[in-house]
């Protein structure tokens, strides 16, 4: 394999790919970056078996082929080279990197051992607005579980049906769901992507206007500007979240979002160590309280409009804050039934996002 | 006449509420006033916890089986105990005590010691204070109590018993012998059945006879420790001070086994038992715990403890057990031989909360535990238990347990 | 089902029963989710596990020759994971990582395979965590646990696995495998089988050019000890120590390379310090294992001499030419009871060394005793 590329281009690409190279060291070859060259296309790939990064750049391919070179070393070398043209010549045993007057020879890693990507060619793919996609991921990812005792809940469900794509995540205490328009193939499809990986993969959408989202059999990919991040899927049945969202709530609080967020944050100072924030909902708005005998207590009244019966419901302050933060817009509508049933938060009139939150039972 | 500003010679008060539970119930439900009332379980295995004075006239007493009480007093009205009510009432009464002196030692919901040596300047003589306390309790709480005034705690307690019902008994410093002598030895603090029997064999039935016994004889019969204690007590000497209690910082239960256990199933079952005991006490005190500590003493007497703080405060045996069991299982030892297990709950004071999960109903154990508490007060502590414990009651292959701590 | 025997299962001769069960399950597509391979080291458990892992991923019925099979057998397949005790135990963090990996779709294969070696080293917390995974296994995951001490394992874990027993191999079987399937010459095979004691060791020895010379040296010890007595005991024990040190030194050269490769690949990025530490722990274990193996071989060779001497005195021929050449005056004249005694001592030393006894002292003690024979 022999290629020639501009230093800046290749240094950037390799640096970006290097972020996907982990340090698990289970397989020596995973410490390397795979360089593939054919038909005028040059690509660099790196993976830690959870996420794979692939960058494609333009350059001259003097001889097709592939080689795996130690990632960190390669990166350091490329960064040290002077501006201008860089040549990489590699075979199964070693790789030679030339730039300006400098010449480096690196021992190659066995390229047959580099994990073969399942390939997303057969995948269902579509294009999304990058900003919307990033926003959706941000809104949903925090609700996913961190407990690998139930791995399926550590993932985000991506569902395509009826011209819409829905992202949903839950840790069984709260559920966050965002819907976006989908212009790709209409066949219904459901996949679960590890939350952490999806958040990482969304990186590829940064500073772009559009992203291509691909859903394959065992991997999902986010691609933009010649760079693609692929993550593995989680197997198993994601809970049917639609069944868990109540039809509608009889009691609704419509409140300024910023004010609500601030208030929860303040009162939450005294809600440490498992102590919840209590909301007393009534005609004038809401009274927030939190506290214990030892620490003391906090009380704050927030004026807002309330429709329904007076109600007392308590929430974990972090879960509540995160929900409020995820809502887009100036106002939040909080619907409750009673102190034991799910509460649902939305932006007024906005059906594209919901945050369901279970209360804390207090005696 | 003692010099002015000298501490009073009888500064110890023992306040004992009269028929406390029954009185509180009558206060709550006036239809119970003036009639025989017993607070306790009315079922076949129930016991009387408190009897109103009208019931006492028939011979009904605390700790008596309800069946017998009913035979003695056919018109007896039974009321199920409401501990939260008694606790709330008790707190209000204690507040009254605290307004006289900071040195208040609460013994139980219906008894307290007071040391009023520093209160005489403000409130007068101890006997006067005793009366004022009784008046305030009657006026503010509509409850009756009896007070003993004496030079020390043990005499004050004997005095309050003598003062009942609705009275004051003042044992003056110089009169202690006269007060004690006619009393049976069982009335002395520290004299239980066994000691009383041993004394009877020496021909001693009253305190006077005990005082007359030569020290050597007493020592040979009961050992130097107990003999010394009785020597002092019989002469009315008790050096104990009034200790103001901090609210309980921990609730714990321990069990030493007759034979060392090593089978995981047995050890888990014991942990469950202990967790249930702790949880029941937590619920009774109206608190929940955040941290569980497991104590393990091995056959070689090495003792270790392991703790974990739970995500939420809990007062159910199931939750405490789950944490305790995880802590125990995490021990890196292979089938260790254990002679003692303990479970302690700390981080008290927070009421139990439960973060609910989507799609499931609230923790059924909370309701079940509350139901079990009710059944136990009606039918006795052994009436109901978790199946895992109940099914394991003494069988040939299970080692019997030693006395509880 | 193919009628020819693919090369992968070939290496498992002597384990007909085990291989039969596994291949039948593969053929009828009824591969279980969890297996427990029980048997002594060196009889073919690991090759069987790899063959099974390759078969479930191979697109061609477990051919053993395609790129996929080759990767698996090379231990370079991204979906075949090897778990072993780092330090003395397999800890719960390892099982948690396993559980996370098990929930993911396979990376490049059809099934994820988790091969857990020395499964009896799972500590209680790790065992319980593994139990949870075995109770609800993901559909694309296969667990293969291997142990030589099934009684030391958590019974609940054992009950969730299909048990496959691997039998210890006798001398004749080992010779047959070496000659018929590894192309080893008959007498060398006999020697290797006799010297190695089990199949893996015999295979290793048969391929090691210096092995024969080493055995000759070991076999000379009993006579030398008998002649020179106690004074030679210490120096001979020293020789053995030197031999072990040399073996470890050779290993360390390879290990240094591994560390160098790791540094080149990962540099000092976040998380590499932990990974390098794990590498170092593994290297330490390998070094100890190498040292142990040297002693094992010396003791095996010594025992072979005393057994040979016994046989010779009873009129039977010595088991092989090398032993025959090493029998001398001591073999002819010392009381035979002392040979039996020597064998017991050697066995006791072997056990002590496997329990981390101080090698130097143990060997000296043994040699001093052997030196007092004849």
Task: Provide the descriptors you would attach to this structure in a database record.
heterotrimer; A: 363 residues; alpha+beta; DNA Polymerase III, Chain A, domain 2; 3 domains; 44% strand; C: 374 residues; alpha/beta; Rossmann fold; five-stranded parallel β-sheet; 17 helices
Question: What are the segments of chain B in which pLDDT stays under 50 over at least 5 consecutive residues?
Answer: 393-405
Strand content of chain C: 5-15%
Rounded mean pLDDT of chain C is 85
Largest sheet of chain C: 5 strands, parallel
User: Could you give the count of β-strands of chain B?
Assistant: 14
| Unreliable stretches covering 5 or more consecutive residues of chain C | none
Fraction of residues in H or I helices of chain C: 55-70%
Sheet bearing the most strands of chain B, described?
5 strands, mixed
| Rg of chain B, Cα atoms, Å | 25 Å
Draw up the topology in text.
The complex is a heterotrimer of chains A (363), B (405) and C (374).
Chain A: E1 2-6, H1 7-18, E2 32-38, E3 41-47, E4 51-58, E5 60-63, E6 65-70, H2 71-80, E7 85-90, E8 94-99, E9 102-107, E10 124-129, H3 130-141, E11 155-161, E12 164-170, E13 174-181, E14 189-194, H4 195-201, E15 210-215, E16 219-224, E17 227-232, E18 251-256, H5 257-267, E19 277-282, E20 285-292, E21 296-303, E22 305-307, E23 311-315, H6 317-326, E24 331-336, E25 343-346, E26 353-357, E27 360-362
Antiparallel strand pairs in A: 1-5, 1-7, 2-3, 2-6, 3-4, 4-17, 7-8, 8-9, 10-15, 11-12, 11-14, 12-13, 13-26, 15-16, 16-17, 18-22, 18-24, 19-20, 19-23, 20-21, 24-25, 25-26
Helix pairs in contact in A: 1-2, 5-6
Chain B: E1 12-17, H1 20-28, E2 37-40, E3 48-51, H2 53-56, H3 66-72, E4 77-79, H4 83-98, E5 104-108, E6 111-115, H5 120-123, H6 126-141, E7 145-150, H7 153-163, E8 168-170, H8 176-180, H9 193-201, H10 207-212, H11 215-222, H12 224-234, E9 250-261, H13 264-285, E10 289-298, E11 303-314, H14 317-329, E12 338-346, E13 353-355, H15 364-379, H16 387-390, E14 401-404
Parallel strand pairs in B: 2-4, 7-8
Antiparallel strand pairs in B: 1-6, 1-7, 2-3, 5-6, 9-12, 9-14, 10-11, 10-12
Chain C: H1 7-10, H2 16-27, E1 34-38, H3 45-57, H4 67-73, E2 80-83, H5 92-103, E3 112-116, H6 124-135, E4 141-147, H7 155-159, E5 162-165, H8 171-182, H9 186-196, H10 199-207, H11 211-228, H12 230-266, H13 272-313, H14 321-326, H15 329-333, H16 336-354, H17 359-371
Parallel strand pairs in C: 1-4, 1-5, 2-3, 3-4
């Amino acid at each position: 394999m022999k290629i020639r590329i501009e230093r800046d281009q290749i240094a950037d690409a390799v640096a970006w790919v290097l972020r996907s190279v982990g340090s698990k060291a289970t397989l020596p070859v995973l410490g390397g970056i795979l360089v593939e060259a054919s038909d005028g296309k040059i690509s660099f790939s790196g993976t830690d078996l959870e996420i794979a990064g692939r960058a494609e750049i333009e350059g001259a391919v003097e001889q097709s082929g592939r080689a795996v070179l130690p990632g960190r070393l390669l990166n350091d070398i490329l960064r040290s080279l002077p501006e201008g043209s860089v040549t990489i010549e590699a075979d199964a045993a070693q790789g030679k990197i030339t730039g300006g007057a400098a010449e480096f020879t690196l021992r190659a890693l066995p390229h047959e051992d580099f994990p073969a990507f399942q390939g997303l060619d057969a995948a269902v793919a579509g294009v999304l607005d990058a900003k919307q996609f990033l926003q959706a991921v941000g809104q949903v990812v925090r609700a996913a579980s961190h407990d690998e005792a139930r791995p399926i809940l550590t993932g985000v469900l991506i569902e395509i049906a009826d011209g819409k794509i829905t992202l949903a995540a839950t840790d069984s205490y709260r559920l966050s769901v965002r819907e976006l328009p989908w212009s790709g193939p209409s066949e219904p499809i459901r996949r679960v992507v590890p939350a952490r990986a999806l958040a990482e993969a969304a990186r590829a959408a940064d500073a772009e206007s559009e992203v291509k989202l691909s859903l394959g059999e065992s991997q999902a990919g986010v691609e933009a500007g010649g760079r693609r991040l692929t993550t593995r899927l989680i197997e198993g049945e994601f809970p049917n979240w639609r069944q868990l969202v109540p039809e509608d709530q009889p009691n609704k609080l419509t409140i300024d979002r910023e004010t609500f967020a601030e208030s929860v944050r303040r009162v939450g100072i005294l809600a440490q160590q498992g102590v919840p924030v209590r909301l007393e909902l009534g005609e004038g708005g809401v009274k927030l309280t939190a506290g214990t005998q030892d620490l003391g207590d906090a009380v704050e009244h927030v004026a807002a409009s309330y429709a329904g019966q007076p109600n007392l419901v308590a929430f974990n302050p972090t879960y509540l804050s995160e929900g409020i933060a995820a809502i887009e817009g100036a106002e939040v509508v909080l619907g409750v039934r009673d102190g034991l049933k799910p509460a649902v938060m939305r932006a007024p009139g906005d059906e594209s996002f919901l945050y369901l939150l279970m209360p804390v039972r207090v005696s | 006449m003692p010099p002015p500003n000298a501490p009073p010679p009888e500064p110890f008060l023992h306040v004992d509420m009269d028929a406390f539970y029954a009185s509180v119930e009558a206060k709550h439900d006036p239809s119970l006033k003036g009639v025989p009332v017993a607070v306790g379980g009315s079922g076949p295995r129930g016991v009387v916890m408190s009897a109103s004075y009208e019931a006492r006239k028939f011979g009904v007493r605390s700790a008596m089986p309800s069946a017998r009480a009913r035979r003695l007093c056919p018109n007896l009205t039974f009321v199920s105990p409401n501990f939260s009510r008694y606790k709330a009432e008790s707190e209000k009464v204690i507040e009254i005590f605290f307004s006289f002196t900071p040195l208040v030692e609460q013994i139980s919901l219906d008894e307290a010691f007071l040391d009023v040596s520093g209160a005489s300047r403000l409130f007068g003589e101890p006997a006067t204070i005793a009366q004022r306390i009784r008046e305030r309790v009657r006026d503010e709480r509509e409850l009756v109590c009896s007070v003993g005034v004496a030079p020390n705690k043990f005499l004050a307690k004997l005095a309050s018993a003598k003062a009942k019902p609705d009275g004051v008994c003042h044992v003056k410093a110089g009169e202690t012998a006269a007060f004690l002598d006619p009393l049976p030895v069982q009335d002395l603090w520290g004299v239980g059945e066994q000691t009383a029997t041993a004394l009877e064999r020496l021909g001693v039935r009253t305190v006077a006879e005990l005082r007359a016994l030569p020290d050597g004889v007493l020592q040979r019969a009961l050992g130097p420790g107990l003999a010394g204690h009785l020597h002092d007590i019989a002469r009315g000497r008790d050096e104990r001070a009034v200790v103001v209690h901090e609210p309980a910082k921990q609730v714990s239960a321990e069990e030493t086994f007759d034979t060392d256990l090593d089978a995981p199933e047995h050890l888990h079952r014991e942990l469950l038992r202990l967790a249930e005991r702790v949880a029941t006490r937590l619920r009774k005190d109206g608190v929940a715990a955040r941290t569980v500590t497991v104590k393990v003493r091995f056959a070689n007497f090495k003792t270790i403890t392991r703790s974990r703080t739970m995500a939420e405060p809990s007062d159910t045996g199931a939750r405490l057990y789950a944490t305790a069991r995880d802590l125990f299982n995490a021990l890196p030892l292979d089938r260790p031989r254990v002679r003692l297990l303990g479970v302690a709950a700390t981080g008290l004071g927070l009421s139990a909360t439960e973060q609910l999960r989507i799609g499931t109903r609230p923790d059924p154990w909370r309701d079940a535990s509350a139901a079990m508490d009710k059944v136990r007060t009606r039918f006795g502590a052994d009436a109901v238990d978790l199946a895992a414990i109940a099914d394991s009651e003494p069988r040939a292959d299970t080692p019997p347990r030693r006395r509880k701590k | 089902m193919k009628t020819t025997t693919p090369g992968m299962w070939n290496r498992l001769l002597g384990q007909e029963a085990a291989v039969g069960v596994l291949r039948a399950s593969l053929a009828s597509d009824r591969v279980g989710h969890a297996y427990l391979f029980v048997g002594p080291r060196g009889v073919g458990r690991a090759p069987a596990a790899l063959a099974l892992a390759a078969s479930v991923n191979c697109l061609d019925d477990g051919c053993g020759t395609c790129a996929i099979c080759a990767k698996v057998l090379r231990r370079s397949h991204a979906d075949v994971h090897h778990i072993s005790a780092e330090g003395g135990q397999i800890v719960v963090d390892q099982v948690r990582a396993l559980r996370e990996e098990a929930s993911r779709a396979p990376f490049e294969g059809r099934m994820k395979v988790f091969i857990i070696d020395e499964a009896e080293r799972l500590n209680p917390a790790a065992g319980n965590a593994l139990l949870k995974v075995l109770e609800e296994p993901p559909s694309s995951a296969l667990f293969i646990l291997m142990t030589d001490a099934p009684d030391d394992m958590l019974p609940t874990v054992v009950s969730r696995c299909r048990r496959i027993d691997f039998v210890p191999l006798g001398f004749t079987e080992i010779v047959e495998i070496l000659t018929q399937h590894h192309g080893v010459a008959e007498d060398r095979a006999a020697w290797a089988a006799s010297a190695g004691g089990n199949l893996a060791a015999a295979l290793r020895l048969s391929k090691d050019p210096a092995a024969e010379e080493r055995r000759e040296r070991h076999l000379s010890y009993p006579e030398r000890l008998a002649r020179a007595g106690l004074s030679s005991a210490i120096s001979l024990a020293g020789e053995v120590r030197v031999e072990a040190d040399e073996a470890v030194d050779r290993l360390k050269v390879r290990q240094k390379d591994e560390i160098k490769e790791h540094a080149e690949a990962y540099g000092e990025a976040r998380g590499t310090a932990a990974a390098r530490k794990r590498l170092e722990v593994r290297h330490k274990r390998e070094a100890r294992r190498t040292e142990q193996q040297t002693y094992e071989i010396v003791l095996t060779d010594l025992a072979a001499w005393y057994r040979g001497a016994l046989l010779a005195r009873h009129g039977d021929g010595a088991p092989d030419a090398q032993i025959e050449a090493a029998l001398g005056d001591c073999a002819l004249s010392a009381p035979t009871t002392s040979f039996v005694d020597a064998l017991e001592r050697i066995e006791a030393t072997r056990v002590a060394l496997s329990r981390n006894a101080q090698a130097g002292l143990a060997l000296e003690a043994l040699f001093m005793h052997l030196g007092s024979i004849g």
